TrEMBL record:
Belongs to the dihydroxyacetone kinase (DAK) family. The lineage of its organism: Eukaryota, Fungi, Dikarya, Ascomycota, Pezizomycotina. Pfam families: Dak1, Dak2. This is Dihydroxyacetone kinase. Residues 1-118 form the DhaK domain. InterPro entries: DhaK_dom, DhaL_dom, DhaL_dom_sf, Dihydroxyacetone_Kinase. One of its GO terms (cellular component) is cytosol. GO terms for molecular function: ATP binding; glycerone kinase activity; triokinase activity.
């Protein structure tokens, strides 16, 4: 089941703890559609979470069995966290999370924090911004581009028109997106999308005069989306937009006379390449990438905006009967899809909705 009472994979009598743990770990460790999965010899951090209704004694027994069975898979547990982290009211259940470790992630897990529910046996109470700074520097390639311009200027009226059109398109599509996310997710995809678009509107309200730098627009958009959207989609959009901004700036500095449209096409492609280093999601995994990747590939290869948006629309529609490899939908029974005549991925629909707003202005 899901933490917001979403439908689970199946309903049955409660089996033994050993078989329950075996089934949970099987979902994590069994190879699926070429996706990453823990392999023997890997160093991992293990989190066993109390859904709210377990006693300390019950959780301890579960942790012991989880640790034992993870060891049977040949996985090396470097850190083990147990406690009440994400609850489903007072649900008497548990969840298991496995994170592949490297030296940096291990250091970050051990870093001090004031988060009240984090296990105090791991570290003390002091806060430190140093670790977070390293992560940010990593996905921005360690380049300080704040304040630098890409040299591609557009009229502020065009940016305002794009923001208004995207806001209109996403507002129209939100009920449909929310409906499908209620069926195959936790029901908040539409609201999350509107939060991000609303954040962008507030960010640029009354702030655009004359001609503005495209690179700075992308950079500010990334920061705003990261702050206002939340969730996995917010992180994906933020990394992509920030990578596009970095590429625009870097290319403009290297070749100030470059064609602006070529810069934008190339930067979208490089932004996608950068994003793919941080998410395993690709076409066919039933995520927003099923719409984003076709759009970027088509546009960067010379297609018009309309043609590229058409590819994104096809990509979103292709998810209707697609078996999910990632996210909540990967745990929803296929019978629910049959009942609804297929369920397109809400994240992919969100990308299509944004691009539809862009298309209305640029075509």
């Amino acid at each position: 089941m899901g933490i917001h009472n979403e439908p689970g994979v199946m309903r049955e009598n409660i089996p033994s703890l050993e078989s329950t743990v075996k089934r949970v770990l099987g979902m994590i460790f069994t190879p699926k559609n070429g996706m990453w999965h823990p392999k023997p010899g890997l160093r991992v951090a293990l989190m066993v979470n109390n859904l709210g209704g377990l006693s300390v004694l019950e959780l301890g027994i579960i942790v012991e069995d989880v640790v034992r069975q993870v060891g049977d898979w040949g996985i090396k547990i470097e850190r083990c966290l147990q406690g009440t982290f994400v609850t489903s009211l007072d649900g008497p259940g548990f969840s298991v999370t496995v994170l592949q470790l490297d030296d940096e992630l291990e250091e970050l897990l051990d870093a001090p924090t004031t988060a009240p529910a984090w296990p105090r046996s791991i570290h003390g109470l002091a806060t430190s911004a140093e670790a977070a700074t390293r992560v940010i520097a990593k996905y921005t390639n360690g380049v300080d581009t704040d304040g630098r311009e890409a040299g591609v200027k557009v009229a502020s009226s065009l940016v305002e028109a794009l923001l208004d059109s995207v806001a209109k398109a996403t507002a129209e599509d939100e009920p449909k997106i929310t409906h499908y996310d209620t069926l195959a997710g936790d029901g908040d995809c539409g609201e999350t999308l509107l939060n991000g678009v609303g954040g962008l509107a507030n960010e640029f309200q009354g702030d655009l005069v004359g001609f503005v730098d495209v690179g700075q627009i992308f950079r500010r958009a990334a920061s705003t989306v990261e702050r206002t959207m939340g969730g996995t989609s917010g992180a994906i959009y933020a990394i992509f937009l920030n990578a596009v901004a970095n590429s625009l700036t870097g290319q403009a500095l290297a070749n100030p006379s470059a064609d602006p449209q070529h810069l934008i096409r190339t930067s979208l492609k490089r932004g996608l390449d950068e994003l793919c280093q941080y998410t395993p999601a690709r076409i066919g995994h039933r995520t927003l990438m099923d719409a984003l990747i076709p759009f970027v590939k088509a546009y960067s290869n010379g297609a018009s905006v309309r043609e590229a948006v058409s590819e994104a629309r096809k990509g979103a529609e292709s998810t209707r009967w697609m078996a999910a490899s990632l996210g909540r939908a990967s745990y929803v029974g296929r019978d629910r899809f049959a009942e609804e005549g297929g369920i397109p991925d809400p994240g992919a629909l969100g990308v299509e909705s944004i691009l539809r707003g862009v298309e209305a202005v640029l075509e």
